[in-house]
Amino acid sequence: MGSIVPVPITPQRFAGKIVFLTGGTGGLGAATCELFLAEGASVFVVDLHAHDIASKLSKTLHFQKCDVSDPVACEEAVRACVAHFGRLDVLINCAGRVGPVTDVPGMPVEEFQKLIGLNLGSVFYLSRVAIPQMIKQGGGAVVSIASTSGLAGDYGLCAYNAAKAGVINLSRAMACDHAKDGVRVNVVCPGYMITPMSAAFETQPDMYADLLDGIPQGRGCDPKEVGRAVLWLASDEASFTTGTTLVVDGGWGARSGAPKFTKYM
């Protein structure tokens, strides 16, 4: 049996590492970008809009506009990252959108295809270019953001449910295929996060109260709480972790779906 080599824990876990991050100009992506930069990484951010990232660009932070639902644009962006920084060590697939709340008959075909392309297709398009680059370098890590919506069904989120479930199983398949190459592939499934994308929840007081009541910790998640899980999976501290799905949801998924008996009895 081989010996276990301890991995030192330092505040600069990503010094010298190059991170390619999608959806990095807002919400969870922006929070995760900040965490990587604070731990010594250089980050190549792609998104459809620059937002306020333009004022933060530096030697260690680069931005390129990219539609990650376009396979050609994804390939060009990965090539640009390698040309700019010289390598690619970590791929973080964070771009995504929930889409309209409707059942299958009410979902326009074009909208379904767009949501699958953005939430699931982008993971495939980027991984197929990034992983060979990582293998050339001796290994790397891929971490994709799925959702608790990829673990169970939701009312009215048929496309989002399908896409996020696909991200989880695609990641498992890639983990199996590329463990021998030194490339680890994992998934983070956030529950309810307090981001601009979820701000609409707070405009429905009854629904919002019901939502929080269903979370054992009784609150929404700060994006950095999810971001720290992403960083751990991307770091050498998770060297024997691949093909896993890490749920960060305040205990939401631990419930059986039964009524909150302690509230009524």
From TrEMBL:
SUPFAM superfamilies: NAD(P)-binding Rossmann-fold domains
UniProt superkingdom: Eukaryota
Keyword Oxidoreductase: yes
InterPro entries according to UniProt: NAD(P)-bd_dom_sf, Sc_DH/Rdtase_CS, SDR_fam
Keyword Coiled coil found: no
Name this polypeptide is given: Uncharacterized protein
Signal peptide stretch: none
Keywords, sorted A to Z: NADP, Oxidoreductase
Membrane-spanning segments: none
Family per record: Belongs to the short-chain dehydrogenases/reductases (SDR) family.
